[in-house]
Amino acid sequence: MTPVCVDERPTGVAPEICEYLDWDSRFFNIRIGRVGGNRLDPERMRRILESSQKQSLDCLYFLADGDAPTLRLAEQHGFQLVDIRVTLTTRMVGSCCPTPGASIREAVPDDIPLLREIAAASYTASRFYQDRHFSCNLCDELYRVWIEKSCKGYADAVLVAEHASRAVGYVSCHLNANGTGQIGLVGVDPAARKLGLGRTLLAHVLCWFQQRGVHEVAVVTQGSNIAAQRLYQRSGFLPKSVQLWYHFWPREQRDEGDAC
Prior knowledge:
Order of helices and strands: EHEHEHEEHHHEEEHEHEH
Shape: globular
Distance between the termini: 44 Å
Largest sheet: 10 strands, mixed
Mean pLDDT: 90
Structural class: alpha+beta
Strand content: 25-35%
Helix content: 25-40%
CATH superfamily of the largest domain: Gcn5-related N-acetyltransferase (GNAT)
Number of domains: 2
CATH architecture of the largest domain: 3-Layer(aba) Sandwich
Number of helices: 9
CATH class of the largest domain: Alpha Beta
Low-confidence stretches: 10-14, 255-260
């Protein structure tokens, strides 16, 4: 799945040593890249630093596996820990039976303004909000754009929960080339929380995947988002992996070096 919004490629995908990210760079108006792979050694680190300088990058994303040498190298060279990425998966056995309650349907264009505002209030635990270099206003807009693009074709479907004749929640669905499914964004209007909408949406989205021949579905959340992890686990998901998101700001490191 090629991201339209921010770079969230599946774990294990290793592009070039330091890949320039065009969409992210244009959105944040700085030059952003991503480190290829999930582990470091001294030689790879040397090449990463050299590549980032040649490309005049302002920020590098790095998704690290949890092995100690990689984490030590990242921190020794000024990479900043900004998030813990938890991946959960479920394998569906038998037929799905959606829970009764809220009306669940596919999104329509008229839903987009409401969904944009739900998205702007739903992801403050994400890595962009945790990094002081990104403004909160831009982070809000990032998720507004993300759900709008999802409704316009980035996702294979967006399911919407209605309550009192109003869209109050959503979940986006992606069909992967390997036959698995990926849940993208999940959001519920803060005013409609504690109504069980999250669990109802998940029950319907798992049925949506099963109807398309998908028997394994993954979802990603933050390590600090205990409420989301509990929701997914109650819906049959189990943790599969834990990784660490780092951001690196090369210019700051060079400026510090010049100051010395």
